[in-house]
From TrEMBL:
GO terms for cellular component: cytosol. Keywords: Coiled coil, Signal. Residues 44-121 form a coiled coil. InterPro entries: Chaperone_Skp, Skp_dom_sf. Residues 1-22 form the signal peptide. It comes from the Bacteria. It holds the Pfam family OmpH. This is Periplasmic chaperone.
Length: 181
């Protein structure tokens, strides 16, 4: 009887250990899912439009700064062969121009910094709900399939967290189907 109990206990222990080692692993490719989502494409379009708007404004300000600088350079060159008094008068005339130029450069730098922050914020606001929707769909498919671990091949490839990969269960199409794609 002791021998039977010991064998039953060992069998139960081995079965439990085997179940722990047989955890299901699958993968998805979030890039494929994202690229199939109209909401993501729309978000990308909005971000590109906003980035282009900022780029146009930066170029406009840079052009304005360049025009002021070029005019000041021409004014300086125009008095090269003039008397010291004329040179001094030109330098006096250019002091407010120099201050204006510095102010415009500072304004441009501030605009660029704010534009970068605004774009990052906008990207977060537009894409966070999309990423959450994908994560929830992946989790739902994983639960339905009783999958213990799901790797994202898109991010694993970028950060090097997936060292070896050969085949396996690809849940990408099922996640797309759940998302209505």
């Amino acid at each position: 009887m002791k021998k039977f109990t010991l064998i039953a206990f060992l069998s139960f222990f081995m079965f439990s250990f085997a179940n722990l080692n047989a955890q299901a692993v699958a993968h998805v490719n979030s890039n494929d899912i994202l690229n199939a989502m109209p909401a993501f494409k729309e978000a990308q379009t909005k971000l590109e439009a906003e980035a282009n708007r900022h780029k146009t404004e930066v170029e406009r300000q840079q052009k304005e700064i360049q025009e002021i600088y070029t005019k000041a350079q021409k004014d300086i060159e125009s008095v090269q062969n003039k008397s010291d008094a004329e040179k001094q008068a030109m330098m006096q005339k250019l002091q407010p121009v120099e201050q204006n130029l510095q102010q415009k450069q500072q304004t441009l730098a501030q605009y660029q910094q704010k534009a970068t922050q605004d774009l990052a914020k906008m990207e977060g606001e537009l894409t966070e709900p999309i990423y959450t929707k994908i994560e929830n769909a992946i989790a739902e498919v994983g639960k339905k399939k009783n999958i213990s671990y799901i790797f994202d091949l898109a991010t694993a490839a970028k950060n090097g967290s997936l060292v070896y990969f050969q085949g396996g269960t690809d849940l990408t199409s099922e996640v797309k189907k759940l998302l209505g794609l």
